[in-house]
């Protein structure tokens, strides 16, 4: 197939503009050259990509597939340039970390900042994901280090403790439960709730716990981030189950009432995962060792 990146960029520009001349101008090409390149694309794939009309062009079904695929390819290429660019400016290593919502939002920002301060020539890529996906990514070598909840099966991966945490119930100020110190999930499972978006590990976990009790959790609103959850509770939208650490670090911890959960599953410790610590590169091993020391340090400082 005889086409290049310029052809793909041109096709996306023409598709977005709905006009061959405007798309060509956006790529700094003459209309005649652009027309030739589009024809070459159509010849390469053996099917028309554009329908020429009096006022412009529109995509065929094949053209829509090409447009979407070209966008994806160009985006991946831009990411590749972004990934490689730091090496030209002195970066000597890269570490990939996948972590669940709790670790990503609460614990890792400070820990990774400290690590990067001490290792200025290392770049860390951090991806937030559900714990089962993190286990798979580490097992397949897509991630060098994973951070997951303690209740997730980790197979043959090497595991180290990271942080201790627990789920708590937060309720609006003035709520009837506000005078209590403790509660069981079964007592509030029928109440309206605020939650993180579906797909996050904690959302799935809470839905499953409600199902075990024979109920479907009444989620009134889903938001991004624990601070937004706590803000919605403070405004009276509903209750929420969140990690205790998220309340401690919230911008509004005194605007909600926090109750301990008596359920055994409320303890939500975090663990580190690697395939084999001995085979990690020096930068990843240094980060893994630093993170694995965190649980002892923070337990001692309490």
Automatic annotation (TrEMBL):
Gene3D superfamilies, sorted: 3.40.190.290, Winged helix-like DNA-binding domain superfamily/Winged helix DNA-binding domain
A GO molecular-function annotation: DNA-binding transcription factor activity
Entry keyword set: DNA-binding, Transcription, Transcription regulation
Gene Ontology CC: one annotated term: cytosol
Residues of the HTH lysR-type domain: 1-60
Domain of life: Bacteria
Family: Belongs to the LysR transcriptional regulatory family.
Stated name of the protein: LysR family transcriptional regulator
Organism field: Nitrogeniibacter mangrovi
């Amino acid at each position: 197939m005889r086409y290049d990146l310029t052809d793909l960029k041109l096709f996306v520009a023409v598709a977005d503009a709905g006009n061959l001349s405007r798309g060509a101008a956006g790529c700094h090409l003459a209309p005649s050259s652009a027309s030739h390149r589009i024809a070459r694309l159509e010849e390469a794939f053996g099917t028309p990509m554009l329908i020429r009309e009096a006022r412009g062009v529109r995509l065929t079904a094949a053209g829509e597939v090409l447009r979407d695929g070209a966008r994806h390819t160009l985006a991946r290429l831009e990411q590749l340039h972004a990934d490689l660019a730091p090496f030209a400016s002195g970066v000597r290593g890269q570490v990939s970390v996948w972590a669940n919502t709790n670790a990503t939002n609460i614990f890792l920002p400070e820990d990774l900042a400290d690590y990067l301060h001490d290792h200025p020539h290392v770049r860390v890529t951090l991806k937030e994901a559900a714990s089962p996906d993190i286990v798979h990514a580490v097992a397949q070598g897509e991630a060098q280090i994973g951070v997951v909840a303690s209740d997730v099966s980790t197979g043959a991966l090497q595991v180290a403790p990271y942080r201790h945490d627990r789920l708590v119930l937060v309720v609006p100020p003035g709520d009837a439960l506000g005078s209590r110190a403790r509660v069981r999930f079964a007592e509030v499972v029928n109440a309206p709730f605020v939650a993180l978006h579906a797909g996050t590990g904690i959302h799935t976990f809470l839905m499953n716990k409600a199902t075990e009790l024979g109920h479907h959790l009444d989620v009134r609103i889903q938001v991004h981030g624990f601070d937004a959850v706590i803000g919605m509770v403070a405004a009276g939208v509903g209750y929420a189950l969140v990690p205790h650490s998220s309340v401690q670090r919230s911008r509004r911890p005194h605007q909600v009432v926090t109750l301990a959960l008596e359920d055994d599953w409320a303890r939500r410790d975090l663990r580190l995962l690697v395939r084999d610590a001995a085979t990690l590169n020096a930068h990843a091993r240094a980060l893994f060792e630093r993170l694995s020391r965190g649980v002892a340090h923070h337990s001692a400082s309490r």
